User: Fold this.
Amino acid sequence: MPTVIVPVGLNLGPSYRYVTPPDPEPEFYRVRLGQEYEQLSADEFQVWGRAFLDPQRHARLEINRRTLRDDVLAAGKGPAEPMQVIDRLLERGLLLELDPNGSLETAFRQLKLYPTAEGMGNTADEPGWERIGHNGQPLLKVSATVYGIWAFSITEESLWAACSGLAEDAEQGRAQGEDIDSLTPDEAAKAIAGNLPLLISAGCAVLDKTL
Assistant:
């Protein structure tokens, strides 16, 4: 059963009409999804954008369909019936519901993860944690497994392929005598799935459709 909800696509901002005098209201908002861009109404954009907010709650995997609806209503902006808009965005692939501990292969074969921040490595004090951030400032710490998927997923055809590739690398390393824990594609997928909400809401990654 899905337990979290995350936005999918790259924000391309508002699109204004070519009119005189200028119309202060955007004609629509644009989100790149795969090789196309989707046009969102103001209400749809408010709901989609709200799904990016509150990294701390995303880190605790607390943002789901119900809490997103409540957040939209509490903000006082956007649609009076957010659930209808949430359903439409889910149908269009602009929102994704998933269970980080459930079956992920089908969904991950249709998605690609793009890193949008700096990899800042580990530290002498915390060699087991890799840091990700912006402008030299770390925003979050993740395991080596999550760091590897985040860093190299852009080179693979899908997020599932990135998870499978990392698992294959781990097995090859073990076969060559390296001191590496065994890793399956499913274990790698669960590791990144549990961190997707935080990575996206912190501005460190974008989830998109495969091309």
